[in-house]
Amino acid sequence: MRPPRRVLVGVALAVAAWTAFGIAAPATNGAHVTADEPHYLVTAISLGEDYDLDVSDERAEERYRPFHRVDMLVQEETRADGSQVSPHDPLLPAVLALPMRLGGWIAAKLTLALVAGALAAALVWVGVARFGAPTAVAVVTTLAFAAAPPLAFYATQVYPELPAALAVTVAIAALTGPLDRRALVVLGACVIALPWLAVKYAPVAAMLVVTALVRRRSWGWLALLGAAAGLFALAHLEWYGGLTPYASGDHFVGGELTVVGTDPNYAGRAIRLAGLLLDRDFGLAAWQPAYLLAVPAAAALVRRRPPGWDTLALPFAAGWLTATFVALTMHGWWWPGRQTVVVLPCAVLAVAWWAAARPRALAAVAVAGLAGASAYAWLVAQAVVGDLTIVVSFESVTHPLVRGWRLLLPDYRDLAPRDWLLHGAWLVAGAAVALRPRLGLVRARLQGATVR
Q1: Is residue 126 part of a domain?
Q2: Cβ distance 282 to 149 under 8 Å?
Q3: How far apart are CA 74 and CA 71, in angstroms?
Q4: Which of 48, 56, 202, 344 has the most CB atoms less than 10 A away?
């Protein structure tokens, strides 16, 4: 069963139009982009006009002024020949090169909004065609997440997160259907694209490859991926001076691997396993409570193991663990949830599959969807007419439901005793929800043994 084409087109257009309003919201005072965004855009200008990654001339000419009024921070190391290459992988700037040339930064952001629409349509298609969700369930679930933060905001922030999420969704579609030559070509393209969008997506790409090889051992396909990995390495050594783009950065003085931290405390980072979901400011659930439903959905997915369950579980685990232990921080100069966006399609599809047989769960998704969409609309409106900025001061949102709800979540940046209590309470509640069916089965067996 597949959803009607008109439904897919409608969902894509609705999400693209809805998220495009975020373009009007300033990222910081006096600028619509901040942090890494202007660097991606300047590289896109260089690719579109000079067909190279050297941004020294764009910097000298201050080509960033239309979208970044203050001086753009220097991230690039100046080489002996005077060239400068931004420490970011090139696929996103390559995608945005033509829009930047034709319509500037607004066209670039509109392009990403169209990517958000394509992602939403893909999620509906995969939910119906691959995981058996009714079309209405897949549409409601997809819109609940796509119209709310963080997906809605990354639809107009210049980062590779949404294109990477789309690549993961298409890869899942290829993996969960007949894994013929055509599907392998599509899957291979997605796997290759992920590290070119950002090298941090390599673990997710690796899990997609492992899942494919479990289904079909195609050594020729694997050899092609190996050749693509070799090309990736050679190109990065030539363009960036190292195996990752971070080698061209002027602030990784200890080497490109210091991007994960000069002295990382992995035990301390383990708290992000919960914090990425529950943090009062940077957690997913702070802005879209429906992400809490991913806990029972994931538990049911692993317990029942429907066809294709591993294509959701393994990439999601890889992405979540990367965000937990490899990312330098989860409290960064960006909209919350950035490090998890690449695998959020796995959570959305799991919730759609789980809610399909649970009308109350679907109702909860719909209610949470309305709450998340209202939060997004409120944030954009407050940013346009008030003093809120999307990246710097999003915590000052005045939405009454959002402000009240966030009081129930722990603050992982300043773990006071109250926050530890909230942390423990949420962990107990999550475990109880996830294990409830298993405990019910054990209780039923014990009762049966007592009767006998």
Answers
A1: yes
A2: no
A3: 9
A4: 344
- Residue 76: phi, psi to the nearest 5? -90, 140
> Which domain, by its residues, includes 33?
5-414
Three-class SS of residue 54?
Answer: strand
What percentage of the chain carries pLDDT values higher than 70? Answer: 94
| 347-356 as b/e: b if 16+ CB within 10 A | bbbbbbbbbb
Distance CA 102, CA 122 (A): 27
Beta-carbon count within 10 A of 220 CB: 8
Q: Residue 357, Cα to own-chain centre: how many angstroms? A: 27
Amino acid sitting at position 427: L
Cβ-contact 145, 348 below 8 angstroms: yes
Q: What burial class does residue 194 get, using C-beta atoms within 10 Å of its C-beta: 0-12 exposed, 13-18 middle, 19+ buried?
A: buried
Element (H, E) at 430: helix 417-451
| pLDDT higher than 60, residue 345 | yes
What is d(CA 76, CA 245) in angstroms, rounded to the nearest whole number? 10
Would the CA dihedral through 172, 174, 179, 184 be positive or negative? negative
CA atoms within 13 A on the CB side of 16: 18
Confidence of residue 282 (pLDDT cuts 50, 70, 90): very high
Answer yes or no: pTM beyond 0.90.
yes
Paired tokens of 194 = 């992920």
Domain for residue 419, yes or no? no
pLDDT confidence band for 172 (50 / 70 / 90): very high
Find how far residue 147's CA is from the centre of its chain. 14
Residue 422 belongs to some domain of the structure: no
Residues 54, 239: Cα–Cα separation, whole Å = 9
Q: Is the pLDDT of residue 251 over 50?
A: yes
Residue 444 lies in a domain: no
CA–CA gap between residue 222 and residue 234 (Å, rounded): 18
Domain count, the chain: 1
Q: What is the DSSP letter of 68?
A: B
Say if residue 317 is exposed, middle or buried (CB neighbours under 10 Å; 0-12, 13-18, 19+): middle
| Digit-coded pLDDT (tens) for 83-128 | 888 899 999 999 999 999 999 999 999 999 999 999 999 999 999 9
Do residues 344 and 152 touch, judged by C-beta distance below 8 A? no
What are the b/e assignments for 222-233, b being 16+ CB within 10 Å? eeebeebeeebe
Least Cα distance to 115 among 181, 170, 195, 75 occurs for 170
Residues 6+ apart with CB under 8 A from 281: 331, 336, 394, 395, 406, 411, 413
pLDDT band of 342, cuts 50, 70, 90: very high
